[in-house]
Design brief:
Layout lengths: L4 H18 L6 E6 L6 H16 L6 E5 L7 H10 L17 H12 L6 E4 L2 E2 L8 E2 L4 E4 L4 E6 L21 H15 L7 E9 L4 H17 L5 H9 L2 H14 L6 E7 L5 E8 L2
Parallel strand pairs: 1-7, 1-8, 2-7, 8-9
Antiparallel strand pairs: 3-6, 4-5, 9-10
Helix pairs in contact: 1-2, 6-7
Length: 286
């Protein structure tokens, strides 16, 4: 019988979060949640935070949540990026690796790993409805207290493995627009899911058909327009998703099969078009 993402996630988190804190460590635990656009990662990321806060908050644990989307470049900086890469259609608008403020992301991650004397941290917020759906960073972020014991971060390409481009490597040489994207993916990988300083659990939403993204993302935009009064048209959404497909084609199958998002353990959930779970796999790394 199909189950839900949060039901499966709770069982997974109950085991591995408890084992993590049972070690007596003071280091933060990251929970990476990765899934294609519209698969429910933002919704379920919020539910994961709420669940962990309810369970571990009374124990004195502080749980925070963010989306990789919150770290997009400002609208102005995105326009600068597009001018720097005028021939690269993958950088024409937010979305792909390379369209985020890496300095800001580095600062936030460092503050979580090494809170020092700070008592709070501002997590940026991004408003996707601004500029007719092109989006822009909100003027004010969300302030969270430090230290953070569990940090939940969701994103559509978290866990993707960038390809090496050396002649002696077994990987295929990357060319065209994807060469720029692949080069920038190393920065995210080194900072987050391949960072030896970060101990993490991974939750992966693996869809049975990557083309589901077109349906899911259109549904999302309709909700955005209803809520905010503006957003992308259906045709614009289709063009928007088109820009992501080269990334999915290059990395997605390998990523979902690797079961390696979390450095401690990874839960991989097969998710159908209606976002119900039809398959579950757990792999313990550490």
């Amino acid at each position: 019988m199909p189950t839900t993402v949060i039901e499966e996630s709770r069982t997974f988190l109950d085991k591995y979060v408890e084992e993590w804190f049972a070690t007596g460590t003071k280091k933060p635990l990251f929970v990476f949640l990765s899934g294609p656009q519209g698969s429910g990662k933002s919704y379920n990321g919020t539910l994961v935070q709420e669940y962990l806060s309810k369970k571990w908050g009374p124990e004195g644990k502080n749980v925070a949540f963010a989306s990789i989307d919150d770290f997009y470049l400002t609208h102005e900086d995105q326009e600068v990026l597009e001018m720097q890469f005028p021939g690269n259609k993958l950088f024409k608008g937010r979305g792909l690796p390379g369209t985020h403020d890496m300095a800001l992301l580095n600062k936030v991650i460092k503050s979580i790993l090494e809170p020092r004397e700070a008592t709070s941290l501002e997590i940026p917020q991004y408003d996707k409805s601004k500029f007719s759906g092109a989006g822009d960073r909100s003027a004010q972020g969300v302030e969270v207290k430090l230290p953070i014991d569990i940090f939940v971060l969701e994103g559509w390409f978290l866990g993707f493995r960038p390809r090496m481009q050396r002649a002696e490597s077994n990987d295929t040489i990357i060319g065209g627009d994807m060469a720029d994207v692949n080069a920038r993916l190393f920065g995210y990988s080194d900072l987050l899911w391949r960072n030896p300083e970060i101990h993490s659990l991974g939750i992966v939403l693996a869809c049975d058909d990557i083309n589901n993204v077109y349906t899911w993302r259109t549904e999302q935009e309709h909700a955005t327009i209803k809520r905010n009064g503006s957003g992308m048209s259906d045709a614009d959404v289709h063009k928007f998703v088109d820009r992501y497909m080269p990334c999915y084609e290059m990395y997605y199958d390998e990523f979902t099969q690797s079961e390696s998002l979390g450095s401690v353990a990874t839960l991989t959930l097969g998710v159908s078009l209606d976002r119900s779970v039809f398959a579950t796999k757990t792999k313990c790394i550490e």
